[in-house]
């Protein structure tokens, strides 16, 4: 009997969080959700991870904020956002009204700030989970990013978990020697799972002026250029911590890219930079995924998780 | 979206006419499109330079791989075009005047130059680089017909006094003695300043001095064009940086905080 696309089950469980499908919009690439709505129905995605919010409003970095690279781009936005209170007042109601499964990315300059932002979001309707963006400079540690250090990651995650009323995921960077150790610290601090990976830190220099191209100096590299790194990072953590749910992120833009990350150990996969090239990318993948799986006789996407590690 | 015509102007700019009914219907001066190319990961933004029926015009100067690819398209080629994006500008009312400062081939200026006269708006074009000429054009456009002839172009103030060319607001010209600096009907006058940021800043300073509204097409590096990435943020005086793709890219010069001059290159030239 031939398997039909309609019979394929796309639902996945990110620990306690059930998603209708494994395709999510990556933080910082889908705005508040509302900006993307003219081009793609956000409600059709497994979830939308909204752009990071911080306790206070942030004006972000000076321009230029973006430079394209071969097969990717560097960005230095500086977490521009209106602050969590304004976000709750102006952006969350639209997400709730439109039934968007929402994961809120939170960021801070101190571990306590992660807790403070999580507290402002506690008990709010429509929020499935928080994603602690720990690739932020820690002002209490000479500006080193939290995610470079297991203890700092654990402290930020623990603060968020203590205040949150929904599961907390930790978005980690691959710019570390031992990613599994950092992931274990996040899990030990109560994270329900991890998002792997954030952008990789990069630098572009204008050779005519001898100055960094980006106004913020360094920037985060995203896009297809980092996809093999993301696949490796997911596999590394999935092997070390087999029970920890993982949202894979890094350069995915096709059905095959999503399946690859799942086979490496991801439960869900975030679409990021691809949205800039084609705003409907994530929804198109949701549309095409059942047929792709049915053609190969796969009844459940969840069954493919970590296939490459077996 | 299909290319229906391609001509190259004397400046090396490819003028492409695209058959794009849906885009043409929503296009207005100030809006733009993004085009996907096979030679770059990200789409590229291009100003819409005109609309005629179901067709819209792009003026593409080949400056990099993606613009060179687009400039090389031929009639019959299909393109992946998203738009119209951005916010249309408020045009001057009939009977008003518009000073177009900047290179004649600038897409927005060329559209306005073609569009406004038929709407009863007097158009004066002037190079943005020639600051006295801008001032002269502005006064000519803004003063009633019965006013005395516009004064001769003022000599630029000494660099030490005015900082001409630094891109900073204010202090650019010493007004000629006795000249009417404030036009008598500034409300119906619009200045649109294309060119380099430094040129735009000079023109904006002249407009501010005259109390005339000045619009500046901004062109920050932009990844998405639809408001989700925040790469194209432009600093403004009245709050947090705004996204050029949603709030502009044409912004009122009075809102902009002109950047300080770029630091001296680390590399000796």
Give a topology summary:
The complex is a heterodimer of chains A (310) and B (269).
Chain A: E1 12-14, E2 17-19, E3 23-25, E4 47-53, E5 66-69, E6 72-75, H1 84-90, H2 92-97, E7 102-106, H3 111-121, E8 127-133, H4 150-163, E9 168-172, H5 179-188, E10 193-196, E11 200-202, E12 205-206, E13 211-212, E14 219-222, H6 227-240, E15 246-249, H7 255-264, E16 268-271, H8 274-277, H9 281-295
Parallel strand pairs in A: 3-4, 3-16, 4-7, 7-8, 8-9, 9-10, 10-15, 15-16
Antiparallel strand pairs in A: 1-2, 5-6, 6-14, 11-14, 12-13
Helix pairs in contact in A: 3-4, 4-5, 6-7
Chain B: E1 2-8, E2 14-19, H1 21-26, E3 32-36, E4 44-52, E5 55-60, H2 65-71, E6 80-85, E7 97-101, H3 107-115, E8 122-126, H4 131-142, H5 159-162, E9 189-193, H6 197-210, E10 213-217, E11 233-236, E12 239-243, H7 244-247, E13 250-252
Parallel strand pairs in B: 7-8, 7-9, 9-10
Antiparallel strand pairs in B: 1-2, 2-5, 3-4, 3-6, 4-5, 10-13, 11-12
Helix pairs in contact in B: 4-6
């Amino acid at each position: 009997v031939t398997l039909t696309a309609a019979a394929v089950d796309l639902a996945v469980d990110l620990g306690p969080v059930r998603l209708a499908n494994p395709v999510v919009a990556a933080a910082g690439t889908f705005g508040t959700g509302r900006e993307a709505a003219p081009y793609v129905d956000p409600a059709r995605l497994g979830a939308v991870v909204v752009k990071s919010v911080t306790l206070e409003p942030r004006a972000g970095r000076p321009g230029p904020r973006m430079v394209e690279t071969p097969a990717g781009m560097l960005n230095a936005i500086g977490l521009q956002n209106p602050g969590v209170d304004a976000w709750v007042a102006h952006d969350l109601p639209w997400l709730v009204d439109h039934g968007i499964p929402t994961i809120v990315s939170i960021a801070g300059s101190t571990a306590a700030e992660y807790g403070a932002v999580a507290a402002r979001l506690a008990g709010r309707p429509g929020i499935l989970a928080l994603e602690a963006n720990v690739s932020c400079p820690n002002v209490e540690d000479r500006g080193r990013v939290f995610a470079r250090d297991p203890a700092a990651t654990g402290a930020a995650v623990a603060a968020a978990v203590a205040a949150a009323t929904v599961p907390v995921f930790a978005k980690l960077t691959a710019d570390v020697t031992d990613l599994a150790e950092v992931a274990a610290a996040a899990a030990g601090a109560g994270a329900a799972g991890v998002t792997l990976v954030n952008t990789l830190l990069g630098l572009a220099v204008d050779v005519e002026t001898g100055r960094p191209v980006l106004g913020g100096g360094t920037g985060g590299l995203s896009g297809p250029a980092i996809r093999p790194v993301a696949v490796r990072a997911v596999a590394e953590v999935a092997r070390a911590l087999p029970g920890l749910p993982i949202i894979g992120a890094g350069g995915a833009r096709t059905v095959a890219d999503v399946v690859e990350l799942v086979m490496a150990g991801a439960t869900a996969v975030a679409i990021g930079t691809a949205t800039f090239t084609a705003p409907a990318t994530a929804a198109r993948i949701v549309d095409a995924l059942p047929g792709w799986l049915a053609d190969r006789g796969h009844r459940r996407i969840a069954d493919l998780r970590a296939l490459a590690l077996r | 979206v299909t290319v229906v015509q391609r001509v190259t102007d004397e400046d090396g700019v490819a003028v492409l006419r695209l058959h794009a009914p849906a885009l043409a219907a929503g296009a207005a001066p100030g809006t733009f499109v993004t085009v996907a190319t096979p030679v770059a990961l990200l789409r590229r933004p291009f100003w819409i330079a005109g609309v005629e029926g179901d067709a819209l015009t792009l003026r593409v100067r080949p400056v990099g791989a993606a613009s060179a690819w687009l400039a090389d398209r031929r009639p019959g080629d299909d393109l992946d075009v998203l738009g119209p994006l951005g916010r249309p500008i408020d045009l001057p009312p009939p009977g008003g005047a518009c000073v177009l400062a900047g290179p004649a081939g600038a897409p927005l200026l060329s559209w306005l130059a073609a569009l406004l006269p038929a709407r009863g708006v007097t158009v004066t074009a002037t190079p943005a680089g020639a600051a006295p000429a801008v001032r002269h054009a502005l006064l000519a456009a803004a003063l009633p017909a019965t006013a005395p002839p516009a004064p001769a172009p003022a000599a630029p103030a000494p660099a030490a006094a005015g900082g001409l060319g630094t891109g900073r607001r204010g202090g650019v010209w010493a007004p000629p003695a006795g000249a009417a600096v404030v036009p008598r009907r500034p409300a119906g006058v619009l200045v649109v300043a294309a060119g380099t940021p430094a040129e735009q800043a000079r023109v904006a300073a002249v407009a501010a001095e005259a109390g005339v509204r000045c619009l500046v097409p901004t062109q920050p590096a932009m990844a998405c064009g639809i408001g989700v990435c925040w790469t194209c943020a432009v600093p403004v005086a009245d709050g947090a940086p705004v996204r050029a793709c949603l709030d502009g890219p044409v912004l009122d010069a009075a809102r902009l905080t002109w950047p300080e001059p770029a630091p001296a290159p680390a590399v000796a030239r």
